[in-house]
Amino acid sequence: MRSILSQIDLVIECRDYRIPVTSRNPLFEEGLSGKERLIVYTKQDLGSHGRQVDIEVREQLIREFQRPSSVLFSSYKDRSSIRKILSFARIHATSKDSLLGSRAMVVGMPNVGKSTLLNALRVAGVHRGKAAHTGAQPGVTRKLGTSVKIIETTEEHETVYLMDTPGVFVPYVPNPEAMLKLALCGSVKDTIIAPETLADYLLYHLNIYNPVAYEEFTPPTNDIIEVLNAIAKKTGRLQKGGIPDTEASALWMIQRWRNGHLGRFILDEVTEVTLKAENGSIGNSLSQGRKIEKEQRKLKAKQKRLGTSNIV
Known about the structure:
Layout: E1 10-16, H1 26-31, E2 36-42, H2 52-65, E3 70-73, H3 79-96, E4 102-108, H4 114-126, E5 148-151, E6 160-163, H5 176-184, H6 195-209, H7 224-235, H8 246-258, H9 272-311
Parallel strand pairs: 1-2, 1-4, 2-3, 4-6
Antiparallel strand pairs: 5-6
Helix pairs in contact: 3-4, 6-8, 7-8
């Protein structure tokens, strides 16, 4: 990615609206410094629970703490938000006044909606079909994509091309809850953390924000097994002998929330305190990541030496 940054005029960094703090990757803070950046919080529609005034206060806080970078909030279902991103890219390209057009790159954590955003911009900007593959699990995009046109050349505006990139995971996850948030939002493959554990964490948030979301299965409860058993019986996810398949029920429950059918709320607490703490932890996260990487290199070198000595 670094090898082509010199050719890029604008970086569009995607973050998940449901985890606006946790989906921030410190690698981009370091690696993309000096580049003009637009931060887009995707999947806004999936975190829209609450009073409108509270949502506006939260989004204004995020804008203030991301300065000087520009910030937009988006949902691929909301054409007006897609048009705002296109307008930003168009104005930026005009200011560059390049004969070859403007080249932008979309980056972000795995499965935060980079490819979906690229497709939405292409459809809205040049009225052409999808150019990037998308999927429910992270890792669909495995290499740098070719640049696709999202804005046509006119007498007033330059052509804008956008390049898709693979998701880049954080170098160091600061705590177990951060990993649970990333996994629940799909930035981590479902095979990494037990589905029942993720479902239990989801139930914790459901009971805070919307305990009636699962009332068709069972009354409000803190017992995840009770919920999963009820879901299994209601949806027919049963093993031999009528035994509830709790793993299948947990995966179904998680996917329902990811699609907005089991509450629409954010997992991160967004306040001045949490945002300041996140700004302060960027350097620590990078340092810890480098420390782990250094230790892994030492371990590999030691294993290599031991393997060589055994042969001799």
